[in-house]
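Holo prediction. Input below; ligand is pyridoxal-5'-phosphate.
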Amino acid sequence: MSSLGNKFVLPAKFAGSETTVWEEFIQLAIENKPLNLGQGFPDFAAPQHVTKALADIVTGENVLLQQYTRGYGHPRLVAVLSKLYSKLVSREINPHNEVIVTAGAYEALYNSILGHVTSGDEVILIEPFFDCYEPMVKLAGGTPVYIPLRPTKTSGTILSSDWKLDPEELAGKFNKNTKAIILNTPHNPLGKVFTVEELNTIADLCKKWNVLCISDEVYEWLVFKPYKHVRICTLPGMWERTISIGSGGKTFSVTGWKTGWAYGPAELLRNLFIVHQNSINSCNTPTQEAIAQGLELELGRFGQPGCYLQSLAVELEKKRDFAAKFLREVGMIPVIPEGGYFMIADWSPLAGKVKLEQETDKYMDYRFAKWMTKNIKLQGIPPSAFYCTEHKNLAENYIRYCFIKKDENLQKAEDILKKWIGGYGKL
Ligand SMILES: Cc1ncc(COP(=O)(O)O)c(C=O)c1O
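Structure of the complex:
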């Protein structure tokens, strides 16, 4: 035994959060070199005006852009964010105290949760949920309360809008200890874009029980026609109880830049400022400046054909349709997303083709995802990672694929699957 003894064991507040699906599947990808439709990022170039802006910033004459900037957000970035969102939510947003820039949307979530949730608080998580919500709530001392979206249709074409919350079940999750609900629209992994009626149901309960809504809207620009992204903070009585979260990485296809933000009323944002100044303190200056320049340009051509905020979804819709088609052709049952860049598909019709007994995981979706990565060389993510232990069984028949990939890579995915199925693949 080491001379350190037990003094440095992991603090109990992290119990149960030791591993993530990402750690496991990134390692699996390194070892097996599959075609990776697992992690959520584009494999094609970001808009040139944004990457060029960053190159110019780091090699340019303004040496101060290589130094610390304002802790709560680089002035040029908070200025354009307040301008953009003031327009989108039809109210004046103060760039100084109603916007904060964070190390990705991830940190905005962390600050919202750590800044508002404390022991004894309950936080409602809608399943499937982006997996970091749960450990963050636990770290804050809160208790997650889970409610699954359930498919309301079992045959024919299934859309992500067919996955719904039961309003009565939802109402039953709220009580005097409820501090917050975390909403994600457009949704990862379902691609569901919550309708205004669904958002009103959530909003009414938030108002009834005086509950904070943390609204994760990182895929706000990735919505397919005819669906519309509705910001819950724009519903009556919701501005004062909503923190809305966005991501520069998702907006401009530069996920590695890890630059995100939150906006909302100063009273709620203040707690996020305090978590931020006592942890991260200030985010890196060059990416903030580049994203600011990028947003200024897009704001200037908002609503016009070249605007990236709107054109990426048009490109992506074709990729969605392509992926849905080949998943269907090989026998899976895709759930057609209305937004975002993920699609889940029911793989159970292919159960006879996979040797799940070769894997040892408890949940079948993990076995399927691993077996496919190792043997067929196509990687997806097991969606039970986005459920609490008691509900993981609800996701066992599904796999999540990311379709924001080059057409040639989506074609490769089709070829891999069809060759495996014994169809008409081109390999
Ligand atoms: C729903 C959701 N929220 C937040 C994030 C994190 O965003 P960022 O990369 O800006 O930290 C992601 C990333 O995949 C996500 O899917």
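The pocket of pyridoxal-5'-phosphate is lined by residues 40, 104-106, 130, 184, 188, 216, 218, 247, 249-250, 255, 258, 260 (CB under 6 Å). That is the main takeaway for now.
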